[in-house]
C-alpha cells in the first residue's frame, strides 16, 4: 500500500468515526425533540380540559339559575349546552389518557433505543479507532526499507537501515509557525501526572478529547491546508449543532492557540518533555495514535 493510499484510507476511517458519532448525536436530538413535542401535546390537551371544566361549571351555574327562576322554556337550552360541554370534556379527557399512554410507551422505547444505539455506536467507534491505530502501525512499519529476498539488497537500501525516519516531525501545510506533528514515541511521559480517566477534572472527558483529535485530523488540519478561516468552522458548528468541547472551532483553538496548545520542551537527544497537554497526550497514547500537534519550545 502506498503512503498516499494509506493516508486516504486513514482519512476514510476517521471520517467514518466522525459520521458514526454524529449519527448517534443526531438520533439523540430527534428522540429528544419527539419527547418535547409529546410533552407539548400533553400540555395543550390539559389546557383544553381546564377550559372545558371552567365552561362546564359556568353552564351548570346558568342551568341552576334557570331552574330557580322557573323559566317557561323548561331551561332546555342551558341544559343542551351543558350536556354538549360535558360530552366534549369527556372526549378530551379520554384523549389525554391516550396521549399519556403513548408518552409512556414512547419514553420506554426511546430509552431502549438509546441504550442499543449508544452500545452499537461505542462498539463501532472502538472498532474504527482500532483499525485506525492498526493502519498507523502499518504506515510506521512501511517507513522502513527491507533488503531483497536474495540477500543482495535489491531494493537499493542498506540492510537494516531505514530509508526514512518514522519518528520525524511533520509540518503539514497551514500549521502555524512553531507547531509540528510530534511522534508520541519522542515524548517523555515519565513525569506526567495523568494516569487514567480519574485524572480528568477540567470539564472534558477522554471521549471528548478523542472526538477532538478526530476532528482535528479530519476537519481542522485539511482546513488549514486549504486556508479555511476559523469563522467558517463556527458556521459549520452552528449548522451541525456542535458546541463546546465537541466543536470544530473549539478544537482548532484548543490545539493551536499558544495558551491552550500542547507545548513540548525540546530535550537533548531529540526527545521532548511535556510543558502542557498531559491529558491530550494520555488520550492519544490510549487511542493508539502516532503523533500529536504541538508547539515546540526550544
Q: What are the secondary-structure elements, in order, as H or E?
A: HHEEHHHEEHE
Q: What is the radius of gyration computed over CA atoms, rounded to a whole number of angstroms?
A: 32 Å
Q: Strand content of the residues, in percent?
A: 5-15%
Tell me, rounded to a whole number, the average pLDDT.
Answer: 80
- Give the end-to-end Cα distance, rounded to a whole number of Å: 36 Å
Number of strands: 5
Structural commentary:
By secondary structure, the chain is α/β, with parallel strands linked by helices. The protein has helices spanning 3-69, 76-142, 206-225, 230-240, 248-256, 278-286; strands at 179-183, 187-188, 263-266, 272-276, 291-297. Helix 3 (206-225) crosses helix 6 (278-286). Mean pLDDT is 80; it is low at 1-8 and 142-165.
In short:
With 298 residues, this protein is of the alpha/beta class. 61% of the residues lie in helices and 8% in strands. The longest helix has 67 residues, at 3-69.
Descriptive keywords:
alpha/beta; 6 helices; 298 residues; disordered N terminus
Topology:
Blueprint: H1 3-69, H2 76-142, E1 179-183, E2 187-188, H3 206-225, H4 230-240, H5 248-256, E3 263-266, E4 272-276, H6 278-286, E5 291-297
Amino acid at each position: 500500500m502506498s503512503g498516499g493510499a494509506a493516508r486516504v484510507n486513514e482519512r476514510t476511517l476517521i471520517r467514518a468515526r466522525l459520521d458514526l458519532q454524529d449519527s448517534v448525536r443526531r438520533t439523540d436530538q430527534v428522540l429528544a425533540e419527539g419527547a418535547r413535542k409529546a410533552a407539548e401535546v400533553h400540555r395543550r390537551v390539559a389546557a383544553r380540559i381546564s377550559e372545558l371544566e371552567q365552561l362546564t361549571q359556568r353552564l351548570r351555574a346558568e342551568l341552576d339559575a334557570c331552574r330557580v327562576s322557573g323559566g317557561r322554556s323548561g331551561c332546555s337550552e342551558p341544559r343542551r349546552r351543558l350536556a354538549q360541554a360535558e360530552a366534549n370534556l369527556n372526549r378530551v379527557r379520554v384523549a389525554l389518557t391516550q396521549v399519556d399512554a403513548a408518552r409512556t410507551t414512547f419514553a420506554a422505547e426511546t430509552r431502549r433505543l438509546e441504550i442499543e444505539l449508544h452500545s452499537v455506536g461505542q462498539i463501532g467507534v472502538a472498532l474504527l479507532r482500532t483499525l485506525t491505530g492498526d493502519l498507523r502501525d502499518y504506515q510506521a512499519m512501511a517507513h522502513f526499507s527491507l533488503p531483497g529476498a536474495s540477500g543482495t539488497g535489491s531494493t537499493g537500501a542498506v540492510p537494516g537501515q531505514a530509508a526514512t525516519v518514522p519518528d520525524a516531525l511533520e509540518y503539514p501545510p497551514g500549521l502555524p509557525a512553531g507547531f509540528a506533528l510530534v511522534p508520541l514515541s519522542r515524548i517523555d511521559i515519565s513525569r506526567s501526572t495523568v494516569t487514567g480517566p480519574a485524572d480528568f477534572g477540567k470539564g472534558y472527558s477522554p471521549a471528548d478529547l478523542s472526538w477532538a483529535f478526530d476532528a482535528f485530523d479530519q476537519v481542522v488540519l485539511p482546513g488549514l491546508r486549504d486556508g479555511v478561516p476559523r469563522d467558517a468552522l463556527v458556521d459549520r458548528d452552528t449548522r451541525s449543532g456542535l458546541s463546546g468541547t465537541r466543536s470544530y472551532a473549539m478544537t482548532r483553538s484548543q490545539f493551536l492557540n499558544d495558551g491552550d496548545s500542547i507545548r513540548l520542551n525540546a530535550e537533548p537527544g531529540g526527545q521532548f518533555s511535556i510543558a502542557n497537554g498531559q491529558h491530550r497526550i494520555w488520550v492519544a497514547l490510549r487511542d493508539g495514535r502516532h503523533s500529536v500537534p504541538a508547539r515546540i519550545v526550544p
